[in-house]
TrEMBL record:
GO biological process terms, semicolon-separated: mRNA 3'-end processing; mRNA processing
Family: Belongs to the Nudix hydrolase family. CPSF5 subfamily.
Chain's role: Component of the cleavage factor Im (CFIm) complex that plays a key role in pre-mRNA 3'-processing. Involved in association with CPSF6 or CPSF7 in pre-MRNA 3'-end poly(A) site cleavage and poly(A) addition. NUDT21/CPSF5 binds to cleavage and polyadenylation RNA substrates. The homodimer mediates simultaneous sequence-specific recognition of two 5'-UGUA-3' elements within the pre-mRNA. Binds to, but does not hydrolyze mono- and di-adenosine nucleotides. May have a role in mRNA export.
Primary localization: nucleus
Taxonomic lineage of the native organism: Eukaryota, Viridiplantae, Streptophyta, Embryophyta, Tracheophyta
Name of the protein in its database record: Pre-mRNA cleavage factor Im 25 kDa subunit
InterPro entries referenced in this protein's UniProt entry, alphabetically: Cleav_polyA_spec_factor_su5, NUDIX_hydrolase-like_dom_sf
Organism: Populus trichocarpa
Subunit record text: Homodimer. Component of the cleavage factor Im (CFIm) complex.
GO-annotated cellular components: mRNA cleavage factor complex
Gene Ontology molecular functions: mRNA 3'-UTR AU-rich region binding
Pfam families named in the record: NUDIX_2
């Protein structure tokens, strides 16, 4: 198998970290039983967040940035919910759960046959952290110095995919490969977190394997 390698070196002769990317066609995609989603209004969701915050404090979520190759370009794997909005695979941590354990658990629940097989997800660098200052606002990529009690923290991690694997997706979700150039700064379609992923990936170089 040939490969196309790009190495980027900055003015201080520091090489950027390389992410290996493999063709979308080398992965298998199957389906499994749907997973339950709360059917709630925005007001219901805000009230639920307030109740959870009162009981548990800061909500911490972890999300996976996974890349594949298609048409010789890097594509980002996204979940589409109800044919409407997009999200990165992942979810909320349990109390006392580590970032890596929680992300591996969520990925297995959403994308594996067996939810208990969590160790085959290789979690890499943390790309960034997003903060919610109150229950109604969007997430922001910084924590204002005057914000003493944030309501939510979302952390993005690179998850390195092997050359081949099976993705088993709940029937009420779609797993889509979207070009990075389409996601970049497309807030209207993908929201602030996903549309900011290409910029967060700018410190990496991609080794695209064919």
């Amino acid at each position: 198998m040939g490969d196309h390698s790009v190495t980027v070196t900055d003015n201080n002769n520091h090489q950027s970290t390389v992410i290996e990317i493999y063709p979308l066609g080398s992965y298998y995609f199957g389906s499994k039983d749907p997973i339950a989603f709360r059917d709630e209004t925005i007001a219901d969701r805000v009230q639920r967040m307030k109740s959870n915050f009162s009981a548990r404090g800061l909500r911490t979520s972890v999300q996976a940035v996974m890349l594949v190759e298609l048409f010789k370009h890097p594509h980002l794997l996204l979940l589409q919910v109800r044919n409407a909005f997009f999200k990165l695979p992942g979810g909320r941590l349990r109390p006392g759960e580590s970032d890596i354990d929680g992300l591996q658990r969520k990925l297995s629940r959403m994308l594996s046959v067996n939810e208990d097989e969590t160790d085959h997800w290789e979690v890499g660098d943390c790309l960034g952290m997003w903060w919610r200052s109150d229950f109604e606002t969007l997430l922001y990529p910084y924590l204002p110095p005057n914000l003493k009690v944030p309501k939510e923290c979302t952390k993005l991690y690179v998850v390195k995919l092997p050359a081949s694997r099976k993705f088993i997706v709940p029937k009420n979700l779609k797993l889509l490969a979207v070009p990075l150039c389409q996601v970049h700064e497309n807030h209207k379609t993908y929201g602030p977190v996903i549309s900011g992923v290409p910029q967060l990936l700018s410190k990496f170089s991609f080794n695209i394997n064919y």
